[in-house]
């Protein structure tokens, strides 16, 4: 998987891309991140990438020319998706992450700034993606989240593949509670069932806890899951 990130701040990614499983995956060639500063493609001597919006308004907009030129400078792989990180986009969830990890070999991520981008940039993109219903100062934060989430699902990133199938959202439910040693800590004890060695009982308890936790913490997920599983 190759990620081409069009950004005004390539240094933003330096430390996160070198840490943890993501850093190891990049070092092993499981994924590749190509950082492109689209200010380098600005056409005037001041390398200006923003301007005032037509019709008036507060703030500045990113100009289309540098972004178009930066994208056109990239080599194109057969299965490519061009994504604008935008609060108006499709919410980034596990279903979308799986789709991107499975169906594409090149993801181009355009990071916005200021009050947004010139609407004509929309002619370039094949999808807009949002991290949630809130506004950030830059598109680099959601771009980094997308890179991390997609790379986790690529073969070789996570050692135990089974663990990917047993975490939050994969089955439409939140994850179950988990414990490790000691069995009792400050009078807080691990549930007896987890110490019983009865694997059927443990699986049953975990499923019940997933349902209980999802119903309490994420009613929206619970309603969706309940509708497809006929639970009361």
From TrEMBL:
Entry's Gene Ontology molecular function annotations: tRNA (guanine(37)-N1)-methyltransferase activity
The family database entries (Gene3D superfamilies) matched by this protein are listed as:
3.40.1280.10, tRNA(m1g37)methyltransferase, domain 2 (1.10.1270.20)
Question: What's the Enzyme Commission number for this chain?
Answer: 2.1.1.228
**tRNA methyltransferase TRMD/TRM10-type domain location:** 1-224
InterPro entries assigned: Alpha/beta_knot_MTases (IPR029028), tRNA_m1G_MeTrfase_C_sf (IPR023148), tRNA_m1G_MeTrfase_TrmD (IPR002649), tRNA_m1G_MTases_N (IPR029026), tRNA_MeTrfase_TRMD/TRM10 (IPR016009)
If you read the UniProt record, what top EC class would you report for this enzyme, in one word?
A: transferase
Give the HAMAP family listed for this entry: TrmD
> Where does the record place it?
Cytoplasm
* UniProt name for this protein: tRNA (guanine-N(1)-)-methyltransferase
Q: Which GO terms describe its cellular component?
A: cytosol
So what family is this one in?
Belongs to the RNA methyltransferase TrmD family.
Query: For binding S-adenosyl-L-methionine, which residues are annotated in this chain's numbering?
Result: 112, 131-136
Q: How does it assemble?
A: Homodimer.
What is the role of the protein in this entry? Answer: Specifically methylates guanosine-37 in various tRNAs.
Q: Which Pfam families match?
A: tRNA_m1G_MT
Q: What is its main location?
A: cytoplasm
Q: Which UniProt keywords apply?
A: Cytoplasm, Methyltransferase, S-adenosyl-L-methionine, Transferase, tRNA processing
Q: Which GO terms describe its biological process?
A: tRNA N1-guanine methylation
Organism name: Gomphosphaeria aponina SAG 52.96 = DSM 107014
At the top level of its lineage, which domain of life is listed?
Bacteria
Mind telling me which NCBIfam families this protein's record contains?
PRK00026.1 (NF000648), trmD (TIGR00088)
Q: Tell me what reaction this enzyme catalyses.
A: guanosine(37) in tRNA + S-adenosyl-L-methionine = N(1)-methylguanosine(37) in tRNA + S-adenosyl-L-homocysteine + H(+)
């Amino acid at each position: 998987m190759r990620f081409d990130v069009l950004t005004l701040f390539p240094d933003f990614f330096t430390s996160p891309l070198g840490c943890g499983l993501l850093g190891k995956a990049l070092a092993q060639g499981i994924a590749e991140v190509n950082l492109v500063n689209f200010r380098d493609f600005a056409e005037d001597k001041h390398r200006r990438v923003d301007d005032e919006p037509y019709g008036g308004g507060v703030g500045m907009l990113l100009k289309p020319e540098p972004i178009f030129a930066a994208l056109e400078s990239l080599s194109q792989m057969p299965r490519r998706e061009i994504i604008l990180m935008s609060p108006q986009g499709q919410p980034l969830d596990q279903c979308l992450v799986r789709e991107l990890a499975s169906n594409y070999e090149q993801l181009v991520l355009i990071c916005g700034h200021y009050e947004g981008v010139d609407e004509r940039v929309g002619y370039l993109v094949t999808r807009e993606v949002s991290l949630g219903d809130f506004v950030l100062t830059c598109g680099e934060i959601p771009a980094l989240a997308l890179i991390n989430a997609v790379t986790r699902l690529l073969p070789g990133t996570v050692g135990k593949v089974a663990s990917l199938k047993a975490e939050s959202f994969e089955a439409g439910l939140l994850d179950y509670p988990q414990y490790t040693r000691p069995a009792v800590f400050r009078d807080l004890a691990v549930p007896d069932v987890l110490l019983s060695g009865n694997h059927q009982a443990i699986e049953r308890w975990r499923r019940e806890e997933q349902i209980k936790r999802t119903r309490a913490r994420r009613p929206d997920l619970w309603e969706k899951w309940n509708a497809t599983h006929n639970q009361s």
